[in-house]
Structures are given as structure tokens and as C-alpha cells.
Design brief:
This protein has 156 residues and is mainly alpha-helical. It has a three-stranded antiparallel sheet with strand order 1-2-3, covered by helices on one side. A hairpin with an 8-residue loop joins strand 1 and strand 2. The longest helix is centred in the middle third of the chain and has 52 residues. The termini are far apart.
């Protein structure tokens, strides 16, 4: 069986610069549209899930910060004999509010009072309605109550 000269030389016949350019041409418009549709679907499916994890992480961060405040408030109470008043607030953990005997702070490591993960100050009330003090964040909506990401994060 003989091979035709054309089949034996296909590599050289089709290896002209024009043929190479045609083979190296970019994606067609349809291929680009298919890729964009797939990326859009992925973003639509994955995006909300990622955002829900972010909301949960913020709530967890607020709970951890409240636990840190609770430890600092307990140390303050051991040194001073009671918790700061509502008027003294959480600032009493950073600097002696004046006229307080036994203050041995600062009781927090940071130079400023931390804000909650949504950028608001934590709320502190002493005496509290739920114990010696109430310490809470109003959540994402910055309003009392709420559910989901808007739920309050409390110390009680």
C-alpha cells in the first residue's frame, strides 16, 4: 500500500504561516459567552453562601470579644470590689475613672476600646437586667432585637 505524496507531506503542506495563524486564533464569541454564563452561574450560587459565612464569622467574633470583656470586668471587680457603673462604662477598663480605689489596670491589651464587628460600640449597663451587668452588641442592624445577622449578641 502506497501513501500518497499529499498524506506523507501533510505536516509540511499545512504548516504554512497562514495555517498556523488559523490554528492559533483566539476563542470564538460563542465560547466567550459560554464561559461568561458559567462564571455568572457560579457567582450566583457561591456568592450568597460566602456572604452567609461572613455574617456568622462576625457574630462569632462579637461573642469572643464579649468573653474578653467579661474576663476584664471580672478582674476589675476583683481589684475594685465591684463592676464599673453604667456612667463609668467600659472605659473604666482602660483608665482609672477617678476616685476608684484598687484600680490596677488597664484590663484590656488594646489601646482603645474595641468596637463590635459592625463598627458600633458595645453597650454596657450596670447593674444589669440579666445579672451584675449587661454587655451586648446590637448586631448588624444596630437595633434591639432581630434575628439572623441582625440578632443581638449578649453576655447573658
Amino acid at each position: 500500500m502506497q501513501t500518497s505524496p499529499q498524506t506523507a507531506n501533510d505536516a509540511t503542506v499545512n504548516d504554512t504561516p497562514a495555517a498556523r495563524r488559523r490554528r492559533q486564533a483566539g476563542f470564538t464569541l460563542i465560547e466567550l459567552l459560554v464561559v461568561l454564563v458559567i462564571l455568572g452561574l457560579l457567582a450566583g450560587l457561591v456568592g450568597p453562601r460566602i456572604l452567609s459565612y461572613l455574617g456568622g464569622a462576625r457574630a462569632d467574633s462579637a461573642r469572643l470579644q464579649i468573653e474578653n470583656f467579661k474576663s476584664a470586668l471580672d478582674l476589675y471587680a476583683i481589684d475594685v470590689g465591684g463592676y464599673p457603673t453604667t456612667a463609668q462604662g467600659l472605659k473604666a477598663l482602660m483608665a482609672n475613672p477617678g476616685g476608684v480605689r484598687g484600680w490596677n489596670g488597664p484590663y484590656l491589651r488594646s489601646n482603645a476600646l474595641p468596637e463590635d464587628p459592625w463598627g458600633s460600640a458595645y453597650n454596657y449597663r450596670a447593674p444589669g437586667q440579666h445579672g451584675a451587668y449587661d454587655l451586648y452588641s446590637l448586631g448588624a442592624d444596630r437595633k434591639e432585637g432581630g434575628s439572623g445577622d441582625d440578632a443581638d449578641i449578649t453576655s447573658w
